[in-house]
Amino acid sequence: MAINKESNGYTIGFAIVLVVVVGTILASISMGLKPIQQKNAAKKKRMDILGAIKVESTRQNVDDIFDKHVKDGYLVNSKGEKIEGSDLKAAESKDIKKEFRNTGVAPEDREYPIYIAEKEGQKLYILPMVGKGLWGPIWGYVAVKENMSDIQAAKFDHKTETPGLGAEIKVYKTFQEQFEKGKKISNENGEFVKMVVTKGSGGEGNPHAVDGITGGTITSKGVEEMLERSLQVYVKHFQTIK
Questions:
Q1: Using the 8-state DSSP alphabet, how is residue 183 labeled?
Q2: In this structure, are residues 168 and 175 in contact, taking their beta carbons and an 8 Å threshold?
Q3: Does the CA dihedral 127-128-132-136 come out positive or negative?
Q4: Tens digits of residue pLDDT in 9-23
Q5: Distance of CA 10 to the CA centre of its chain
């Protein structure tokens, strides 16, 4: 029996077959690329971790530089207690962005990675964190000196913040460099002190405040909330090992 290529049935059937074939091809390509995507994501995370201690790297050399500077790592729970058996591999494997988005994981069940690095003979603790910006997730790494209070440097990034406004959290000269100017995560007794993101120039000379982003109020508050929620856990941990 001849097929009527002018019929609606033929057109619909052809469209269904085409969608299935193209969908299968795209799914196969996606699965094939997944290992490469995961490898690139792991390299990008290592680059960000190194960026928190102001060490530059590329996708080509990041693994060697990471191994040179990052000496150890582990996970802590929301009480600041080290999770027994966790190591550097466990810290790198922890996807805090995914865990933060997962509403099925209660805040008290979240786990927090810590990286221990060395730069120019100085021991540094690199503390990852994640939060919410205006249009999407924000995240960052704060590097703390060996005294577990003074901030060495910080690196922040975002997914979809507004250029010139919330996006400024990733520009060193306008936001991040403030964290290199005598900022602290605790007081002289080792107790957590909230880092306030202020309007105007309220952060000048205050070890527990930085100036916010002009026109980026929501993102600034997102950074403040992210810092408070994360750093108080890390300070709890530091109190257990001092």
A1: -
A2: yes
A3: positive
A4: 667 766 787 777 777
A5: 51
Q: What is the pLDDT of residue 158?
A: 76
Tally of CB atoms within 10 A around 211: 18
Integer angstrom CA distances of residue 228 from 10, 52, 60, 178, 224: 61, 18, 35, 17, 6
Helices (H) and strands (E) in the chain, counts: 5, 7
Indicate the Cα dihedral angle 209, 138, 229, 144, nearest 10°. -60
pLDDT in tens, 198-231: 876 767 889 999 988 766 678 888 999 999 999 9
Question: Which of 234, 225, 233, 231 shows the shortest CA–CA distance to 132?
Answer: 225
Q: What is the mean pLDDT of residues 160-166?
A: 41
- Tell me the whole-structure pTM to 2 decimals: 0.81
Written as one letter, the residue type at 55 is: V
From the list 200, 194, 230, the residue with the least C-alpha distance to 217 is 200
* 8 Å CB contact between 141 and 164: no
Alpha-carbon distance of 90 to 166, in angstroms, equals 31
Give the pair of three-digit tokens for residue 242: 């001092």
Residue 147 corresponds to which tokens in the numbers above?
């005294």
Q: What is the pLDDT of residue 130?
A: 95
Residue with tokens 């000496």: 71
Smallest Cα–Cα separation from 126: which of 118, 137, 134?
A: 118
- CA-nearest of 69, 66, 78, 19 to 42 is 66
Q: Nearest to residue 233, comparing CAs of 87, 127, 132?
A: 127
Per-residue HEC secondary structure of 203-226 comes to CCCCCCEEECCCCCHHHHHHHHHH
